[in-house]
Amino acid sequence: MSFIKKLGTMTAAVSVAALMVAGAADAKNFKIAVGDGGGGTQEALGLAFIEALEENTNGQHTASLFLNGQLGSEQDTVNDAAIGTLDFSILAINNVTPFSPTVGTLTLPYMILSLEDAEKLTQGPVGQELVENTIRDAGVRIIGWAYSGFRVLTNSKKPVTTVADMQDLVVRVPKNEIMIATYQSWGVNPTPMAWSETFAALQTKVVDGQDNPYITNYAMKFDEVQKYVTNLRYLFSIEPLIVSESVFQSLSEEEQKAVLAAGEAATAFSAQYLRDQEAEIKGVLQERGMEISDPANNEEEFITLATEAVWPQFYESVGGVEKVNAALAAIGRDPVQE
User: Fold this and answer.
1) Residue 102 half-sphere exposure, CB side, CA atoms within 13 Å?
2) What tens digit of pLDDT does each residue of 1-32 get?
């Protein structure tokens, strides 16, 4: 069964289950904000979380997804969750970093080089410390992680294989200091822009390109406004599922356990979803006319410029070199020196 049919079946099952528990007097139907459209990693994580939550609570509690930023921009949903007016949100990790800077460890260019690296970091001691920091700094708790793959570069003008090829491109990036600095290290002055504005900006050619994982490019239908793809690996996209800490603390101990267990189940599902679906989605985008290129010389020029220029700028904000080295040690890489 294709990933499209799988999601459709899962959505139908969740809807039926939600109707079954609607009459329960003390049942909860949580709201989950989702930045992306249907068919992507964020939706898949959300549906897996809802299914596990219903199972863990014997159908007493459920949740509803609000796709395509219906409940506000991704950064707005962090604010809303922090003050308790929103229950849950699924969003790109770079949109959490402004509220809890140590999370930026996971967005340093070329820190994460594989899905396995991402799993070790988010599900181990490094990830647990980031969860605790985010509760302290932002008033939200990370309870699950979606894994979307590397943020490949897309554009509407030409194939890109070298840093020189990028110099005349206008590239949209999130309002994230580390990502902005990465493009600047390549000699590009990127255009920070809210996620909700990106498709229209690409369509009207206010910007030429953007970067996101294959699954996100598919979910957002960027193939309609972009032609060329470059397989950059500078940032592995991780998209946490956050819950308002005030909402979480309002739950009973049993409900909290059910929510945390559902987050763990959704995380495991997301990793397998990426393994199962990324290649298929890549093929669909090629069939729709997208042309895919690899960076020259195994991306060496991109890697050298980004790591040498960007990492030292952000050691302090992510908690110091020792925190970076702890992350590197967790994935079996050599430490860096200040």
Assistant:
1) 21
2) 444 445 544 444 444 344 343 444 489 999 99
